[in-house]
Amino acid sequence: MNFKSIMTTILVVALALGLGVGAGYLVRNSGLLGNGGGGGGALVTQGDYSSVYAKAGGDVVMYSLSTCPFCKQARAVLEKQNVKFVERIIDQDKDAKLEADGLKIKSVPTLYIGDQSLQGYDEAKLVELINAHGKAAKPAA
């Protein structure tokens, strides 16, 4: 190996490491996957979310990312439970992103149901909230 190929190899490895570290930093600090975004880390909070419902045009609202597997699971639970909901996909809709920023959403999915919000995905907690607020629709006969 000559000097030029050694230097090229070192440069390529350094660039790959730098991009990997940089991407990891951006994901961690973007706030979009705040508490891991997934199971077990879900946080339920209470509040008056009437302004969220008014902006979204529904009484169950989910803020999500198009690429988030936990958002996909939450969507499937809502659909299985026949819940009518409005999904705000923050990486595809500028208005949804502005709303999420204003709400200080730090993880996805974030769901608003009644006087409670659920940050992160936890199927049991989600079903509990749906049942507690009577949001499951009756199946069509």
TrEMBL record:
GO terms for molecular function: electron transfer activity. PROSITE patterns: GLUTAREDOXIN_1 (PS00195), GLUTAREDOXIN_2 (PS51354). Residues 60-116 form the Glutaredoxin domain. InterPro entries: GLR_AS (IPR011767), Glutaredoxin (IPR002109), Grx-like_ET (IPR051548), Thioredoxin-like_sf (IPR036249). GO terms for biological process: cell redox homeostasis. PANTHER family: GLUTAREDOXIN (PTHR34386), GLUTAREDOXIN-LIKE PROTEIN NRDH (PTHR34386:SF1). This is Glutaredoxin family protein. The lineage of its organism: Bacteria, Pseudomonadati, Pseudomonadota, Gammaproteobacteria, Lysobacterales.
